[in-house]
Write a structure and sequence with these properties.
4-stranded antiparallel β-sheet
Length: 391
């Protein structure tokens, strides 16, 4: 048979049972308690709508003056964002993208040839395999271990780092484990990457959402060090604006100037970042402060409720979470994660995510979003715990 489409598109398009059941429920008009919600614009937060719309209506947006790295004013706004967090980032080290996903695509292009390898954490958000396939590079996973707290398994990382490894992805804090990179881990990771002359890609979209203070953690790698490092973030999470497409890359460490020049060349090929959002960026970041504060208040309150709801004699436990928008329940292995999730949706109208969606390497885990309104979260959680406790 003659192949028509690229092999990069050879993914299983079959709808999984949970998604199929959810479609049935919604077609039937069932009110599903969605404990997977990750879209802040649908989670009942109050947005400064007038300010956001006014920022996007700036007359300067009518002029097209392409700048592959991004407008100077926008990059200065990103620099100010880091300065407010105690990190000095010169605008020359910043390159704008339409999203963090596009940032990954640019970095894979910059660092890897077809067939090269990118090291990514496990468990983590199930996007890397698709992004890597689009760039004809391969994924090698290294595990995060949980022994009361999450940490990088450096022995396994070293084993995963073959001769074609070109970069290590760090999600800080991780999605869904909510674990931040600690200073001791960062020092070891930096030494590891520098010795092998491979880059570190730090995905920091949730870094502003720490659920409690911890002086041992590293919130951002944007300051740089002995290894070539790229920090990524954007408006989607830090301002709760996933519909306003703008992200960025901050390059640091050895040869970062050459790296930015290479990224500029790639960006010049696409010129994907729209002028209106670049012009609006300083005001959007300021408007996002109020949204971010609401998200933090919500996630901390839902997490506190979850901790109190799980009694000392409960057959399930919540794994330690430090930041982000998710919590993980370890539930009895009396059934598979998929069976837990299907039962909750089929018989209790509650939607949760099974751990295998995030490549957990063992059973049985359920992933819950901390973003839903409290009444939805509390009602849905009650159903989850009731099912677990009667099993």
């Amino acid at each position: 048979m003659i192949r028509v489409f690229s092999s990069r598109l050879r993914w299983d398009a079959e709808v999984n049972p949970l998604a199929a059941l959810l479609t049935e429920k919604r077609r039937a008009g069932v009110n599903v308690l969605d404990l997977t919600e990750s879209n802040p614009t649908l989670a009942g937060f109050e947005y400064p709508g007038d300010e956001i719309l006014a920022a996007l209506a700036d007359a300067r947006s009518l002029r097209y003056d392409p700048a592959p790295r991004g407008l100077q004013s926008a990059r200065e706004a990103v620099s100010k964002y880091y300065a407010q967090r105690g990190v000095g980032v010169d605008p020359s080290r910043i390159l704008l993208t339409a999203s963090t996903s596009e940032a990954y695509a640019y970095l894979f292009k910059l660092l890897a040839d077809p067939g090269d390898e990118i090291l990514v954490p496990r468990p983590s958000y199930p996007l890397f395999e698709f992004l890597a396939a689009m760039e004809s590079v391969h994924i090698r996973q290294y595990p995060l271990r949980h022994d009361g707290v999450w940490h990088v398994d450096f022995e396994a990382l070293e084993q995963a780092a073959g001769p074609r490894a070109r970069a290590i992805v760090v999600v800080n804090p991780n999605n869904p484990t909510g674990s931040f990179l600690k200073r001791q881990e960062w020092a070891r990771l930096e030494e590891f990457a520098a010795a092998r002359r491979i880059a570190i890609l730090s995905d920091e979209v949730f870094s502003d959402f720490a659920l409690a203070p911890d002086p041992t953690r590293v919130a951002t790698l944007a300051a740089g060090g002995d290894a070539l490092t790229f920090s990524m973030s954007g408006l989607s999470k830090i301002a709760g604006l996933p519909q306003v497409k703008l992200g960025w890359i901050v390059a640091a460490g050895p040869r970062h100037s050459s790296a930015v020049n290479g990224l500029e060349w790639i960006a010049d090929t696409y010129l994907s970042v729209a002028t209106p959002v670049q012009v609006a960026l300083p005001r959007l970041l300021q408007a996002g402060d109020a949204v971010r504060a609401q998200i933090l208040k919500r996630t901390r309150a839902n997490l506190d409720f979850l901790r109190r709801a799980i009694g000392s004699g409960s057959p399930c436990q919540m794994l330690n979470v430090e930041g982000g928008w998710y919590a993980i329940l370890q539930v009895p292995r009396t059934r598979s994660e998929e069976q837990w999730a299907l039962d909750l949706l089929a018989n209790h109208d509650v939607l949760v995510q099974p751990g295998f969606f995030y490549d957990f390497d063992s059973e049985a885990f359920l992933v819950l979003s901390l973003l839903p309104p409290p009444q939805v979260f509390q009602k849905g959680l009650a159903q989850v715990l009731h099912l677990i406790e009667k099993t």
